[in-house]
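Quick one: structure tokens for this chain, please?
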Amino acid sequence: MKIILKSYLVILCLFLSIPQKAFSFQKPEGLKEIGVFAGSLRDGTLAEKDDYVTVPVGLRLGFDIKPLIKKFKVGDAFLKKRDMLEFVAEPFIAGVISPDSNFETGCGLLLKYGYRFGKFLPFINGGTGLQYTTQHTREEATQWCFQVQGGGGFYYFFEEDKAVSFECRFRHFSNAGTKEPNKGVDTYGFYIGFSYFFN
């Protein structure tokens, strides 16, 4: 728990210390959100081992795909100005603190939909990704694995273009049947993050 709290405090201090001018670079076309996140994920079903517990820290890059949807005349009836529809890339690194001290790294690729109500923007997301873990388990024969993940949460905008986020996340990883055993590892947990949104 102390490791998690320290991760949150470090990320919060780094985010709040970034001057506004730091965001004035030429952003890639479509980039809508840039942020950081940290969290804790746990699985309690490993065979002959203690719970699988990770503490991820990562970067969040959200690309607005509403213009793409509207370009093909799809979704005009339900996509409104307050809607969020993003393709999100989440490169991350995570400390595995149980059953042994190890680490994970990889990148999640998700679609995110949300709708803003004043300072709150609840959302749902889901997607896939790729990861490498140094932790050996009886559930997985390989250390390179694919992810399937999803969750829901909300942003709270403390300024018009800055928000904190809270999210519950489910993540399954396995090697997609490339080698046995391939029972997979399911983790559940939460993320907290800080994001800057481009207008």
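Strands lie at 31-43, 52-64, 83-98, 102-115, 120-133, 144-159, 162-174, 185-197.
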